[in-house]
Each structure stands twice: as C-alpha cells, then as structure tokens.
Amino acid sequence: MAYDSNNIFARLLRGEIPCNKVYENDHALAFHDINPQMPVHVLVIPKGPYVNLAEFIAGASMEEMGAFMQAVAETAKLAGVEDSGYRLIANNGEDAHQEVPHFHMHIFGGRRIMGRMIKRQD
Ligand code: AMP
Given Cys at both, which of 11, 26, 60, 111 links 64, Cβ 3.0 to 4.6 Å? Predict the structure, then answer.
C-alpha cells in the first residue's frame, strides 16, 4: 500500500502539528493519544514511512525494529504502567479499524478496567 505522506502522524513527525511527547529515540516517537480511551493511552510510532506491520517488517532495518520495541518498553515505563501492567494493540487494516495509515502501537493502562480480551460486536 502506498504511504500517504500527508497522514496525521507524518505531519506530526515533520513538526507541522504538535504532540504531547513521552519519549523519542533515533527511530521512534511516543506521544499521548489525543482522544485517550484509558487513563494511560500512549502511541508509539516508527519515524520511517510504514503503513502497517507488514510494511514495517518488510522495509525497516533490524536497528529500526529494535529501536521501536525499545521505545514501546521505555514509554510504558515512563508512563508509569510497567509494574501495574498494560496492553499493547496495533490496529492493522479495516477489520481492526485502523484509522491512521502510519504503523503505530497503542499502550493502554493506568486502571484495572480492561476486559480479558476483545469485545465482539456482532
Ligand atoms: P487507529 O484506529 O489504531 O489508527 O488509532 C489512531 C489513533 O490516533 C486514535 O486513537 C486517535 O485518537 C489518535 N490520534 C489521531 N490524531 C492524533 C493526534 N494529532 N495526536 C495524537 N493522537 C492522535
């Protein structure tokens, strides 16, 4: 899938729109979700132009991938949920309701109110 360089996270990475940054390394950026669904709701994105996980794995170097996962773990720590626990979700494609076409990981936590898994809506 072609990468849309005008998607909201691409614009955010270029500094065209602000974000509430939690953590950054050479290859990843973490910031608070603008519409939090949990007391802690932070997004981690690679700095490279990847639409989804498949494109990230196909196009990113081992260094980028490692830096991304390191950013996820470090962000959870900085957000204060390392010990209390957190859930990681990466929505990929339509069935998962991916809205922003730039690969990202959600970190959810901060309160023990999440169900065990996924709530069905059928
Ligand atoms: P997804 O459905 O996985 O693509 O989720 C995209 C997420 O990006 C949603 O939770 C939005 O609230 C969040 N979001 C959209 N625009 C911004 C923004 N400018 N800053 C922070 N989070 C955003």
Answer: 60
